[in-house]
Amino acid sequence: MLQIVCTLLVFMVIIFPIGKYVYHITTHKKTFADPLFDRIDNGIYKILKIDTSNMGWKKYALSLLLFNACLVFVGYLILRIQSIGIFNPNGIEGMEASLSYNTIISFMTNTNLQHYSGESGLSYLSQMFVIIMMMFTSAATGYAACVAMVRGILGKRMGNFYCDVTRITTRFLIPMAFIVGLFLVSQGVPQNLSPNITLTTIEGKLQDIASGPIAALESIKHLGTNGGGFLGANSSTPLENPTVLSNIAELYSMMFLPAACVFTFGHMVYDKYQERKAKKLDTTASKEFDKPSSKVWLGKEGRTIFAAMSILFVIGLALCFFSESQGNSAVASAGITQTIGNMEGKEVRFGVAQSSLFTTVTTSFTTGTVNNMHDTLTPLGGLVPLLHMMLNVVFGGVGVGLMNMLIYAIIGVFICGLMIGRTPEYLGKKIEGKEMKLAALCIIIHPLLILGFSALAVSVQAGLDGITNPGFHGLTQVLYEFTSSAANNGSGFEGLADNTVFWNVTCGLVMFLGRYLSIIIQLAIAGSLFNKIDVNESIGTLKTNTWTFAIILVFVVYIFAALTFLPALALGPISEGLTLGL
Amino acid sequence: MKKFLRHFRLAFLFAIAMFVICGFIYPMVLTGVSQVVFPSQSNGSLVEVDGKAVGSEIVGQDFTDERLFHCRPSAYNYNTYTQEQKDSGEYAGLSSGSNNYAPSNPALKERLDEDIEKFLEENPTVSKEDIPSDIITASGSGLDPHISVEAAKVQMDRVAKNTGLSQEQLEKMIEENTSGKFLGIFGEETVNVLKLNLMVAQEIDMI
């Protein structure tokens, strides 16, 4: 318990400078590292002849889609021909077509759902050129979409897609990945290009130990909230995550960018209000200029969003930790006294505390990396990761979490507006029919994909064949797989036998639609708000920078989740929990 | 159309640039630096006896010798195998993971009962209530190098009887191979089984 609190407190301290740094990158403000990075970025723009002028939302979205399409195309080719002799010391074969399709969609959409096992499925060439590369680019894509949306909502020009991707990659992702990677190596994560090791143990048996560029993948896997492991069992393996320090480093890495996006948002809103205030003062020639407070931590609008996300996070974490601490009912019924909680599927070095924290973080920040097996969680412990992926707004993946939360904020002001009889406004923009229709569409896609495809899977034999745990838990396995796909999370109830054509194709579709439909709609909302004239704040304006609104936001999120997902949850984890006496 | 092609060309070139920067330059530089700065860790933290690798410090092993401490159950036997098992295909190659049995799955109960029975057979002085839960549950990775301090102590009787070492000697060895919590707060107390066994093996001239 104490270590969970301490881990989160330390994070709250270090996120401030990082959030500020990302805000400076986003808004092209000065940072200490500019002399170096300006040169690199300008070099890239020059060689590729990139025009760095502003784009409209359509051009921005088009560039995003085209760029992703090119990556998918080349990446798919590499997976298919990975058996060639370059960077393939372990003699891995080429990947089968439906699995390659699933894999490439999975990594491009920042999902990182894996229907293969890294040890036997990928050569080092694929691990580096496809997996590591896509971990950078999918994160940068999500970030770019997010900042473009924020700019649009604030009535700023949307910026340039290539600029945004280049800046976040060279100025944040690569340097951080390098530092974190080196730290992970110091803890024991391998980083080499040698073949797997075979050795003879002191009992005279043989043992194989995995090798490869593991640390390089590990660091960006978390920084970009990707989550696909180098090895089958992901961050639970000691080769990917050998110590409690490496565990905390990985935890922090996945929390950095999603939290920093909220900071960036808060600061940008604050800037806008300052500008408006300054303008107003100019025109009315007011006598005193009320000084902006010397230090802006988060900005009030950012604080609301951050608070709402944090409340959702802490509730989930508490439930997961409590439930796991109670122990595993099967172990109890076998007559074993459990003093350290449910250890099935968990590592001794992490215990219940670091494991439940990791589980909650990985599904809240939609990374999808696991340091314990989610399939073996207690029913309510397993409910939390499932629920957080269904909400998909508890910080969320790089960029997209904030985008989803802003949609909920728009819906929140709309609902409140109806209740008090005012025209809903958010951040000085009127929310009207068009935005509401798009927002509603955006909210509907997620449950439609999850529940629709789950229903399909349990009604055809090909889907039922994948289920490996009997009873209610079997349904949870199916539900979890599609929730993870739609939320672009990528963790799994790994017992599911999912490397079949049915699962590869359906999950691929869900990941694709879940990612791009939402991003396009969200950019469209931003584009529509961008064209609106700012309305002046009046006495009737619903304030969105208060704690009250943060609480409203939490309720809106929970109510929407309950309305859509409660029946499915009741049939899965809740029923399982009730039959086991919770 | 021409405009679209221009967009496409730029997107393609940008994609290739990303392949080179993120997919090649970054992992290569990290490999180079790690090999120089942390040569042991970056190559798998191998433990050597007489110049030959006998295991990795961070990977558990499927110890079965009665004179040694045993690890937790593993769905993949810690990727440990004999030549016959490899030839017969019983060992299917490098893997990691767990059985993924849900608490409600009867198969979990079965596996637990089997492992508990086996443990009690091997350690006849231990009663069922004293078995720590980590030694009969499978880890998530199937490669867990650690057991809890209690799980090491509960095996002491057996190891003492089969090696002739005294309880005090073993207790000291366990203590020496225990790592505490980081700063007394983070993580759990763990015993590294391979290192502990190497110490035992050295003491009884097994290696």
From TrEMBL, chain A:
InterPro entries linked to this entry: KdpA (IPR004623)
GO cellular component, one term: plasma membrane
Main location: membrane
Compartmental location: Cell membrane
Keywords tagged on the record: Cell membrane, Ion transport, Membrane, Potassium, Potassium transport, Transmembrane, Transmembrane helix, Transport
Protein name per Swiss-Prot or TrEMBL: Potassium-transporting ATPase potassium-binding subunit
DNA repair in keyword set: no
A Pfam family: KdpA
Residue stretches spanning the membrane: 6-23, 60-79, 128-150, 171-189, 251-270, 305-324, 393-418, 438-460, 501-526, 547-570
Species per Swiss-Prot/TrEMBL record: Massilimicrobiota timonensis
Family (UniProt): Belongs to the KdpA family.
TrEMBL record, chain B:
Keyword flag rRNA processing: no
Membrane is among the record's keywords: yes
GO MF entry, a single one: P-type potassium transmembrane transporter activity
Keywords on record: ATP-binding, Cell membrane, Ion transport, Membrane, Nucleotide-binding, Potassium, Potassium transport, Transmembrane, Transmembrane helix, Transport
Ranges annotated as spanning the membrane: 12-33
Subcellular location: Cell membrane
One Gene Ontology cellular component annotation held by this UniProt entry: plasma membrane
Topology of the protein relative to the lipid bilayer: Single-pass membrane protein
Role according to the record: Part of the high-affinity ATP-driven potassium transport (or Kdp) system, which catalyzes the hydrolysis of ATP coupled with the electrogenic transport of potassium into the cytoplasm. This subunit acts as a catalytic chaperone that increases the ATP-binding affinity of the ATP-hydrolyzing subunit KdpB by the formation of a transient KdpB/KdpC/ATP ternary complex.
HAMAP family xref list: KdpC
Family indicated by similarity: Belongs to the KdpC family.
Oligomeric and partner information: The system is composed of three essential subunits: KdpA, KdpB and KdpC.
The name this protein goes by in its record: Potassium-transporting ATPase KdpC subunit
Biological classification of the source: Bacteria, Bacillati, Bacillota, Erysipelotrichia, Erysipelotrichales
